[in-house]
Amino acid sequence: MDFAEPRVIGHREHGLSPQQVSSGARKVVHALCEAGFSAELVGGCVRDLLLEHVPKDFDVVTDARPEEVRQVFRRARLIGRRFRLAHVRMGREVVEVSTYRSLPTMAGGDYEVHGEHGRILRDNVFGNRDQDAMRRDFTVNALYYDPLKNEVIDYVDGFKDLQAGRLRMIGLAAERISEDPVRMLRAVRFQAKLGLVLDQEIEVLMPEMAYFLRHVPPARLFDEVLKMFHHGHALKVFDDLYRYGLFAELFPAAARAFIELDLESRTGLVRRVLINTDQRVKEGKPVIAAFLFAGLLWRALLVERDRRVSHGTAGYPALQQAAGDVIGRESQRIAIPRRVSIVMLEIWEMQHRLQERRPRMIQRLLENKRFRAAYDFLVLRAGAGEVAQDIADWWTRVQAVTLDERRQMINALAITGDGRKRRPRKRRRRPVKTATP
Ligand code: ATP
Ligand code: MG
Question: Is 3.30.1330.40 the CATH classification of the domain at 253-422?
């Protein structure tokens, strides 16, 4: 393959200044160049700086091999099994330094899936900078910035694309997607996060190639899904995934179970969960995977529970069994770690008890570790018309009042019989064991 000469873009045009690069990364580039190697910043950080976003981190690439990087920085740690790279500590900062890589073969590169084309057997496939540029996913992700010369180096017209607000793949999109179908998800993520417009060619291909996602290891999809949904643009990501036919590949049971109401633009539960997630990210509040998955899979859970109830299973065991079933099936696509599925189950199980408001249970519910998440979910369900608003409001109030007032509120429930009255139990029902994955 022929490589075009790179376009070197000067300060006047790119407008960056080396001071925008973290001091650690600048020192790393400087030291590598002093030692006679070439080194630049690359990828997300250059793209983000040019878009006037704050980069998450600064990645350095170089023609020095990992062992050579370690000779330059005695405090470098080599990590990664298949493709080794170095972590260089600079004060508080850790700078990732990787060596230029050559073009992937059908299944090369450390990020590639192990699809039907077989396992990746080769280790370090080092290359030149021009090869390194070509194996990257999008043109805007393949820009190099040299902070010493204050130059941007561009092999693939990434700079022009950034200026035009275009997200375009390097090379033939169909080929690049089949090499690594996760690039479709990255396209959706970057489009939402950066406000770039996706190339039409990719838009057309995605519905046709969505099923390629089935070849991606489920654990990698879990990570990608969180990256997509937990960065403040979950709603846009969801709409795009849906539009491109990718959502049904990631969450088949959820996609089948959704009813129109769930997707209603403002009131639908799914949309409310996503809007809430975006809001929390914007406010710097923590977001958890369990809440997102509990929300996306809620309708699938209800459908499965109702099916079991209609076959004669009692409500509570039906819910538990349905949860095991829905999570188990979903995990075949997206590996939901056990620590996450446990919390999902807790959020789901608490819904009924929060709605019931049995006076003797209130205090225990309030003290439950998952109360906050379960309550947040209840509020969203109320907003979606699934739960009486006054029940959600009652829970909001009971958290805000003094202990005395709380006692009064609980007593009032017992008197008005709002909370379910206790019936004498005939016998204890044994909890039904379900196989949650
Ligand atoms: P973010 O800001 O979300 O971290 P990023 O572009 O830095 O975005 P990373 O996943 O950190 O994304 O990857 C760093 C760089 O590595 C990318 O900019 C891209 O050049 C390259 N890259 C990552 N994943 C792939 C992939 N699947 N295919 C091709 N190139 C990739
Ligand atoms: Mg990055």
Answer: no
